[in-house]
C-alpha cells in the first residue's frame, strides 16, 4: 500500500487576479548557487523560513536555457518525496505538478549541494538521501541569528515592486557618449 504524501506548494509569483491575502510571509535566510546535475549551467536558489520555522526551497535562476518552476517547495515535502535507495529525480516531479520537467532535476541538484542527497555508489545518475542533521543545524543557526535576505518576499499587499529598467533612447545614448 502506497503512503499518501500531502504536498505543500507556495506560489509567490501570483497574478493580480489571484487573492494574495493568504500568502505566508517568508524570510529568506540563505541564498546560494550550485551546478546542475549535468554541470552545464549554474543554478541559484533560496532557502526561506515561515513564522512557524518551516523551511522552503526555491530555484531563483538558471544560467542555462532550461525552464523551471519558481515556486517555494516545502523542505519536508521534498525530503518525503525522495524515496530510500537508489533513485533519480523522477519522484520529485510530483512536487511540480504541470510544471517544467527540469524543475525536479534542478531540485535534486540543490539537495545534492546541501548535502541532503548524494550519488549512489556504482549507479550512474542514481542518488540516495543522506542525513540532514548538519544541514538543519546550519539552518537553525541562520534562523536564530535573524538572518534575512528577503527583498521581494514581504507582504505582497504592502511591498513596492522594484522600478522597471528604462529603455535606452537616442537622447540618453547621445548624452552617455559625451
Q: What does this 3D model show about the protein?
A:
This protein has one domain (about 10-175). The protein is an alpha+beta fold and about 180 residues long. The chain starts with 8 loop residues before the first strand and ends with a helix. The protein is built from 4 helices and 7 strands; from the N terminus they run E-E-E-E-E-H-H-E-E-H-H. The chain is globular and about 40 Å long. The model is unreliable at about 1-20 and about 150-178 (pLDDT under 50). It is about 20% helix and about 20% strand. Strands 1-5-4-3-2 form a 5-stranded antiparallel β-sheet. The protein has a two-stranded antiparallel ribbon with strand order 6-7.
What's this, in brief?
By secondary structure, the chain is of the alpha+beta class. The chain contains four helices and seven strands; from the N terminus they run βββββααββαα. Helices cover 22% and strands 20% of the residues.
Amino acid at each position: 500500500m502506497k503512503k499518501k504524501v500531502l504536498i505543500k506548494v507556495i506560489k509567490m509569483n501570483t497574478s493580480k487576479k489571484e487573492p494574495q491575502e493568504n500568502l505566508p510571509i517568508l524570510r529568506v535566510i540563505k541564498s546560494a548557487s550550485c551546478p546542475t546535475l549535468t554541470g552545464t549551467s549554474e543554478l541559484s536558489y533560496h532557502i526561506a523560513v515561515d513564522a512557524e520555522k518551516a523551511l522552503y526551497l526555491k530555484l531563483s535562476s538558471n544560467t542555462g536555457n532550461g525552464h523551471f518552476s519558481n515556486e517555494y517547495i516545502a523542505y519536508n515535502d521534498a525530503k518525503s518525496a525522495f524515496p530510500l535507495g537508489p533513485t533519480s529525480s523522477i519522484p520529485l516531479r510530483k512536487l511540480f505538478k504541470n510544471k517544467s520537467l527540469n524543475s525536479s532535476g534542478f531540485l535534486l541538484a540543490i539537495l545534492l549541494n546541501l548535502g541532503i542527497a548524494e550519488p549512489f555508489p556504482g549507479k550512474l545518475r542514481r542518488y540516495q538521501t543522506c542525513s540532514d542533521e548538519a544541514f538543519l543545524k546550519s539552518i537553525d543557526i541562520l534562523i536564530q541569528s535573524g538572518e534575512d535576505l528577503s527583498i521581494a518576499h514581504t507582504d505582497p499587499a504592502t511591498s513596492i515592486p522594484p522600478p522597471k529598467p528604462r529603455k535606452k533612447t537616442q537622447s540618453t545614448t547621445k548624452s552617455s557618449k559625451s
